[in-house]
Amino acid sequence: MLSKAQNLLVLQSESINGYEDASAATLRQVSEARVPLENAENATVIGDVEIGDDSSVWFGAILRGDVNYIRVGRCTSVQDGTVVHVTNRTHPTVIGSYVTIGHSVKLHGCTIEDNCLIGIGAIILDGAVIGEGSIVAAGALVPPGKEFPPKSLIMGFPATVKRELSDEEVEGLKEHALRYVKYKNEYLSEGIY
Fold first, then answer.
1. HSE of 176, CA atoms in CB hemisphere, 13 A
2. pLDDT tens-place string over residues 123-165
3. What is the rounded distance in angstroms from the CA atom of residue 16 to the CA atom of residue 27?
4. DSSP letter string, 30-41
5. Burial, 28: exposed, middle or buried (Cβ in 10 Å; 0-12, 13-18, 19+)?
6. Which of 45, 76, 84, 107 could pair with 55 in a Cys bridge, judged by C-beta atoms 3.0 to 4.6 Å apart?
7. How many domains does the chain fold into?
8. From the CB of residue 116, how many other CB atoms can be counted at a distance below 10 Å?
9. What is the CATH number of the domain that holds 75?
10. How does DSSP classify residue 20?
C-alpha cells in the first residue's frame, strides 16, 4: 500500500535547496513522494520515489529522488546502508520487481531489471543496465553505460559477465526476494520495523 510520506520529507527540504538545479517543480515532487508505510524508521526516502507493494527499505538506506525519479517494483528489498540516487535530467534509477539489493550497495542512475540480486557493496553507475534474472557479485563495480544481458553472473572491478546463470539459479533469485518479504512481515508483526 502506498502512502504520502510527508514525515520523511520535513528535515530534508533544506538540503534540496542547496542543489544548483533545484527548482519549485523539484520541491513539489519531494512533497508528493509516495512510499510504503513498511519502511524502517531510520530509512530516508525523498523526492520523486515510488515503491511497489510488499517491498521494503531497511535500516539506514537512502533513496534520493531529488533531481530525477526512482521507481522500485514489488517484492523488492533495499537493504541496510544502501544508497540509491539519480542523475539530473539524464538517468533515473529504476529497480524491478523481486529484486534483492544487498547491504551497502550504491546505485546511481541505473536500471536493475526484474528478479536480480545485487551483492553487498556493489556499485552500479549511470546508464548501466542489469538484465533480468542476473546476479551482481559483492563488491563489483559496474561502469557507466555498461549493459548486461539477462541471466548473467556479473563480477569484478570493472564488472564483466563470468557466465550465464542456470534456470535453477534464476528461480532461486525470486525465492530469495520473497524471503525478504517474509522478514519484513515478521519485523512488522513484532513492532520492530
1. 22
2. 999 999 999 999 999 999 999 999 999 999 999 999 999 999 9
3. 8
4. HHT-EEETTS-T
5. exposed
6. 76
7. 1
8. 28
9. 2.160.10.10
10. T
SS3 139: coil
Domain encompassing residue 80: 2-190
Rg (CA), the chain: 16
Three-class SS of residue 122? coil
| Cα–Cα dist 143/62, whole Å | 21
How many Å apart are CA 137 and CA 114, to the nearest integer?
16
Predicted TM-score of the model (pTM): 0.82
- pLDDT per position as a tens digit, 93-113: 999 999 999 999 999 999 999
**Grid cell in block for residue 143:** 561502469
CB atoms within 10 A of CB 117: 23
Per-residue pLDDT at 38: 58
How far is residue 61's CA from residue 48's CA, in Å, rounded to a whole number?
Answer: 16
Q: Bridge-partner residues for 156, per DSSP?
A: 159
Q: How far apart are CA 93 and CA 91, in angstroms?
A: 7
d(CA 117, CA 103): 11
Task: Choose among 164, 177, 158: nearest CA to 98.
Answer: 177
